[in-house]
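User: My advisor, Dr. K., asked me to get a structural model of this assembly before our group meeting. I'm new to this, so sorry if the format is off. These are the inputs:
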Amino acid sequence: MTTQQLHEQILQKKSFLCVGLDPDLAKIPPHLLETEDPIFEFNKAIIDATHDLTVGYKPNTAFFEAYGIKGWMSLQKTINYINENYPDIFTIADAKRGDIGNTSSMYAKAFFEDLNFDSVTVAPYMGKDSVEPFLAFENKHTIMLALTSNEGAFDFQTLNTNGTELYKQVLETSKTWKNSDNLMYVVGATKAEYFADIRKIVPDSFLLVPGIGAQGGSLSEVCKYGMNDKIGLLVNSARAIIYASKGTDFAEKAREEALSVQKEMAEIIRLKFQV
Amino acid sequence: MTTQQLHEQILQKKSFLCVGLDPDLAKIPPHLLETEDPIFEFNKAIIDATHDLTVGYKPNTAFFEAYGIKGWMSLQKTINYINENYPDIFTIADAKRGDIGNTSSMYAKAFFEDLNFDSVTVAPYMGKDSVEPFLAFENKHTIMLALTSNEGAFDFQTLNTNGTELYKQVLETSKTWKNSDNLMYVVGATKAEYFADIRKIVPDSFLLVPGIGAQGGSLSEVCKYGMNDKIGLLVNSARAIIYASKGTDFAEKAREEALSVQKEMAEIIRLKFQV
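Assistant: The format is fine. Below is the predicted structure of the whole assembly, which you can bring to the meeting.
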């Protein structure tokens, strides 16, 4: 998928919502546990109930790997289900990978080829040759961590390096890499005021924004500082939507939550772009 | 496994070699491709041929994930094979994981519980709450990236932060985390002179050292600067050992390569400890 196609989908759905799929057997509705593949059944129901309100799904690989081979099978079924039934949806493997060149090539192959995700999240610590193998894939997107939404973000990401914070250095440096057009960045919603500075460095890139909802970030604040003239945001919400109810009505309640966020997004788009 | 048990195994085998298992279908001996699970058959043969010369195996998860479910099954069979047949061996899931707290907990569950590895590699970029969930597991070890062996290491890891390089700050900060005794660190062999400074910060920790062999690092230099009075090193070699031959003699040739490294290690231990 191209960023242009993603932009068009955003305008059409009046939504830049991405739903995080973090399926935890301890949290999903108990009645699903009797099915053969509770994780897939859970994801499928959430996807069917929200696909017209969201432009992206972001399965978090940890929540599948924790269940071993069975979990990896659920991940494959989930991505296949999205690709077959809702091919316009932008898919993100939230995997936070990154390793020396030949290893990163194998991760890229895993997520872009074997599983056929549109994008994958990567960590920047190992630098250029750990990220460029991902960037080599045409019409695939590499979403690099810049400033994350957790407390630990302040351990290293905001350290002063040569007069600027490390995460800004990461953004600057990454722009010099080969095929850097295929980069997007993770920027946490818990620090909305940081978006203004970030937009000076990467005005045109899509930013994947976790931290809305359960983690406490404000949508309007993020949009105020982070939106560009092509929207340029994918706002992720996981727990607040997928765990809206533990009952048999979980998918319906997830839809209600997603609808509430989508309506807020539609209003923000209407006000900003007068459409 | 405790670090004490690992130390005892090192003295007994006169080896601190770790063999990296990076099974690439394009590189393993062609005759194995006719078997039902070429990746597992390859690993099994390498393990059987080298287990008395090495104290650790380090499967690189990328090389399994690239083959999807089949690859994940090969990974499970490989770790099970080691744990059942050579329970003294220290096992490392080279996964470079790290995410917000509840996600890191799921990764820890995946590698420490589901797959039953002794250790896993993690990336530090997201800070304390992305690493502490791994550290909570007793007698399991979390091997955090400090200074890696690739070119991109110089993009961010060596940036000056508050008067010191980022990787030194990472080492310093990590010592304050809960259960930091369960930390080990990745330090690339391509920069042997850096080990002296690193040992001032983490004198007692085990260091996992990639970059010997195919990546060009020198074993004697690394030992000169990096060894402590409990050895404190796990030196990894992957390609130089596992791809020593593409013929039916690949396991035999792998053993020859491993034996050559082990002999060099035995001599270093003898000279340093007069044993």
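One thing worth pointing out at the meeting: Chain A has one domain: 3-273.

User: Perfect, thanks a lot.
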